[in-house]
Predict the 3D structure of the following.
Amino acid sequence: MDRTAPTDHPVLPAIAARWSPRSYLETPVPDAALHSILEAGRWAASAYNEQPWQYLITRRALEPEAFAKLLACLVPFNQGWIGGAPVLMLACARLNSAGNGKPNPWSHYDAGQASSAMAIQAAALGLQLHQMAGFDAAAARAAFAIPEDVAPIAAMVLGTPGPASALPEALAQRETAPRARKPAGEMFFLGQWG
């Protein structure tokens, strides 16, 4: 199924190919692809080069207990569509600067940049990375002994997109609906607000 974004202007093919499917095949993500995706995140930009992101990676086939613990931290709706997805991750942000120990107000933004780079790299490799806000951060912190100065900020599924027909009807319709975005004029302002 081709889900390439109908962009108004040319963008890199991997950006247009990136989307957030809910149907995934059970096919494991090859180690080389996973390392390539993580490397893309490693080289994301960050304020003061802090690189405040940290990721917990669980693979269904290789870390089944950790995968199940992280899956249990997702809200029931997200648990319902994960299906056979092979990789489940947790994106986190270190809240304090490594250099001076002071709060880093850009840590979440920077972790988002790393996650975005990973999502684009995944799309370039024919995979997709679906980022989710629907998880219990406190449960994840407890399940994995995440330090207090590290904030769990997003759960992420990685794998090969599967057929929409594997989903319940309502989700299958969302999976195949035309892709759309707000008009650029609602997001980007030249010279003055609005």
User: Anything to note?
Assistant: The domain at 23-160 is CATH 3.40.109.10 (NADH Oxidase).
